[in-house]
Every structure is written in structure tokens, then in C-alpha cells.
């Protein structure tokens, strides 16, 4: 995966809280926990699970989640 965003922080998913349409995904990056709000569909498409390695990708004021 290659992205134009330079701030790609690799970590481990520690929590996924699903709402009606949006999930909050918490990623531990060396002790700092970053939270991203993404759609439930994206959680399913990326096959996100607690314990899985993921990237917090920060561009401007948004935090996206990426996986290898």
C-alpha cells in the first residue's frame, strides 16, 4: 500500500466500538492511542479486528485506517 500521506503510524487495534453506521477504531501506537471514526462498512471491508496490526494515516484533520 502506498499513500501520499506522510504520517502513517503503525500500531495494534485495541478496541472497535460499533454504532448504528460508524465505528470508533482505537489503535495503540507505542503507548499512544489514536481513535478514528470510520464507517461500519469500512471496518468490514478492511477486516479490522482487535489485536490486528493497522496504520493510523493522518492527513490534514482526518485520521484514516489502513492495513497491509
Automatic annotation (TrEMBL):
Entry annotated with the keyword ATP-binding: no
Report if keyword Protein transport is assigned.
Answer: no
Q: Which UniProt keywords apply?
A: Molybdenum
Matching Pfam families: TOBE
Q: Give the InterPro entries listed for this entry.
A: Mo/tungstate-bd_C_term_dom, Mop_domain, Transp-assoc_OB_typ1
Q: Name one GO biological process term.
A: molybdate ion transport
Residue stretches making up the Mop domain:
2-67
Q: What is this protein called?
A: Transporter
Amino acid at each position: 500500500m502506498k499513500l501520499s500521506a506522510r504520517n502513517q503510524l503503525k500500531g495494534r487495534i485495541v478496541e472497535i466500538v460499533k454504532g448504528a453506521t460508524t465505528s470508533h477504531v482505537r489503535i495503540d501506537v507505542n503507548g499512544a492511542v489514536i481513535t478514528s471514526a470510520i464507517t461500519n462498512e469500512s471496518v468490514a471491508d478492511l477486516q479490522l479486528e482487535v489485536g490486528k496490526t493497522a496504520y493510523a494515516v493522518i492527513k490534514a484533520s482526518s485520521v484514516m485506517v489502513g492495513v497491509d
